[in-house]
Write a structure and sequence with these properties.
Two copies of one chain form a homodimer. Helix content of chain A is 40%, strand content 16%. Chain A is of the alpha/beta class. Chain A has a single domain, classed as HAD superfamily/HAD-like (Rossmann fold), CATH 3.40.50.1000. In chain A, strand 5, helix 10 and strand 6 form a beta-alpha-beta unit. In chain A, helix 3 runs antiparallel to helix 4, helix 4 packs across helix 5 and helix 6 packs across helix 8. The interface between A and B is large, with 40 and 40 residues.
């Protein structure tokens, strides 16, 4: 069980929870996982950002006037200072326009094509090799123990769904992320047609929005929540707030040799406290990538 | 197979579709069902309306001033003319306020308690006896053939979820309906708390909204859609618009002896055409409750 997890207090806590959950009905065995930085590498840039940057480059090659827009110029130039100054949200909303008018099937095909071609910009491995092997083992062990596994991501729902079955064995309907609004149209023959807009439906799926979307889109309360960043705080608290055995797991990226070392601090956390400190205060189990994982990526 | 379905063209069409779907990958075998009037009886009133009316009566018994509000008075008096005049949507929004501030767990418990106690206002049977036996058999047959079954209802998502597992074997996350907004709060000890508001999130889940919510909340395209009313039109069209074997099934309530006889016509259908006529024009398979079903309700 969990062969890539080193023996120690963290692995013991995970196994103690899994054993305690056996007393619960299968319907109560619900686990939610963040995606970026929890199931796969999110540095130096989000994979979804890489996808959108790639699509923008294709567009700019055909139409140089794309460069005239400040948000697009910043991305094409890799100008992180400009992106920060414009604000990541404004840049993200501009990038969302690249796929407005596209059908769900076309969008899926675009994501899959990118995945089969692209490599991590630093590690130079295919993107499918950026998933964390210990997390894949945990997903398998949860399913073996009749858990239902959901992905609750801040990323775009359809982006994650396009690869969730292949990478994690998680079906589209078990993925909740930031939602794009769709428009229902009709083609020339009157047949229905569904296309993406450039609008986000509701809030970006971070912080308290993750808890609300777990309720509205999944309707079951998790007893295990796994995350890595300040945007996962409320979801991890939510898992611990029930009256059954529960576990909040936070991955600490403290391994600059095999992956990256960084702290997640954001305005959603009180007094800009590092999320690892918040977690220790709230009784979460902190996974040290350096110490608790024998292997990080699949072979 | 399908023992409560009489032999004939309708049953043949269903079985021909099920056989044709065997050639598809299981991930493509996706079926969506409307709930009210498709999986269970919706006359003379929606079951959810009965639930809300019941809750309002409890409230009015404790606080007679409830009667001062026009929407509530109309419901308490069973004054259908007044309800029509006020508009069903306005009455529904007023009833939604009854559960504002309530947690998901409390709401679930309220629905289940009502189900265990209430009886159909005409037939006087427990509500669980109002599901259609032939549809239960179709759900079972679909699952046997590795279909994923979703419920796509115009009713409240949480209301349907509270009973979907017990009545239909459908888990909460496989139910999509009209969504209520939630608020993320904290209790006295700072622990997270999720409560219902009196606001609907997005549109009521009818018509084109059903197609949009299938995409945003489930992310898979159905090849079988089953409905009974004008609010199911776009969903049934959507199932037929793909390029795989597909089937659109419409239940015609033409059986006043065993259930009800009524036509569904609404402003969402062009020129106020009956939905059965629309279906015949669009190549749907129409189920005659009177002729195609040997049994309507379970024993």
């Amino acid at each position: 069980m969990l062969p890539s997890w080193r023996r120690g207090a963290t692995r013991d806590a995970v196994i103690a929870f899994l054993d305690a959950a056996e007393q619960l009905a299968p319907a109560q065995r619900v686990a939610v996982f963040d995606n970026d930085g929890t199931l796969w590498c999110e540095k130096p840039t989000y994979v979804q950002y890489d996808f959108l940057e790639d699509a923008l480059k294709v567009k700019a090659a055909a139409d140089p006037s794309v460069h005239d827009r400040a948000e697009y110029a910043a991305v094409l130039d890799g100008d992180w200072a400009a992106i920060q100054q414009l604000g990541l949200e404004r840049v993200a909303m501009a990038l969302l326009e690249l796929f407005a008018g596209v059908t769900p099937e076309q969008f899926d095909a675009n994501v899959v094509e990118f995945f089969n071609r692209a490599r991590h910009r630093v590690l130079q491995v295919p993107l499918a090799h950026l998933v964390y092997q210990p997390m894949l083992e945990l997903l398998d062990e949860l399913r073996r123990r009749r858990f239902t596994v959901f992905i609750v991501s801040g990323g775009g729902t359809e982006f994650v769904r396009a690869i969730s079955e292949a990478l994690y064995g998680v079906q589209p309907e078990a993925v909740v992320g930031t939602l794009v609004e769709y428009e229902f149209l009709r083609d020339d023959r009157g047949a229905p047609l569904l296309v993406r807009t450039a609008r986000v439906l509701g809030d970006a799926n971070e912080g308290a929005a993750k808890v609300r979307s777990i309720q509205t889109q999944l309707g079951r309360r998790p007893i295990l929540a796994v995350g890595n960043s300040a945007g996962d705080k409320e979801m991890l608290e939510w898992a611990l707030a029930g009256d059954t055995p529960s576990l909040a797991l936070l991955l600490d990226h403290d391994d600059e040799a095999r992956e990256y070392r960084y702290a997640s601090v954001s305005a959603t956390v009180e007094e800009h406290e590092a999320i690892t400190d918040v977690g220790r205060r709230l009784g979460w189990t902190i996974i040290s990538m350096e110490h608790d994982w024998e292997r990080v990526f699949p072979d």
